[in-house]
Amino acid sequence: MIGIFGFGRFGKLTATHLAKDFNVLVFDRTDKSSEIQKSGARAASLSKVCRQDIVILCVPISTLQEILKKIAPVLKKDVLVVDVCSVKEHPSQWMKDLLPETVSILATHPMFGPDSASDSLENRKIFLSGVRIREKLYQKIKSYLSAKGLIVVESTPKDHDEQIAVSLALTHFIGRTLSEFSAGPLNIDTEGYKRLLHILDVVDHDTWQLFYDMHRYNPYAKEKRIAFMEAMKKISDRLNDKSCV
Question: What is the model's pTM?
Fold first, then answer.
């Protein structure tokens, strides 16, 4: 059986897909019993969720340390704990530091969300890093995910955070900036502008907390953000310099 901690938008997505193949128990800090039941899973207490063979933490990065400390004393021995945070270095280290040595750890980042993967996981990417896990179990999980149509990307937490600082954090930064700029559909537009507005769709349903966390906890996000803004300034300066015409 699988236990899930957290039933936000991504926790709901996770429960819905896994409940097709496994018995899934879900704990959330608020009473979401009816919603959990509709997903195919069952609501359960924190202690019962922690006694399952696999426990998936679908929680914001900013709450992860607090939750790890809370579940550490009640986790089943030899349980596999999985996180789904969009940043990997800090969460991986926190899990190693705060969870008992008997606990296996798998760091993941599903690179899709409730909107893009509501109907199918086909050709969606998921990042895996076996922080502390038996090879046989790791390969079994990898095979299951691949069979679901997911593209499994394997690397280190450091490599993940360096790349995701551009592919995710910077993309969301541009999307939030477009939103602040009040960009929107126009009658007189171009295909390029329509593609630009697609970034707004990507960030439209995500919370500010998620956006803030992916920048605060990714050690490479700030430098990429600053480099991007400096590049924009260079282009603007060139436009303002009449000698460059």
Answer: 0.92
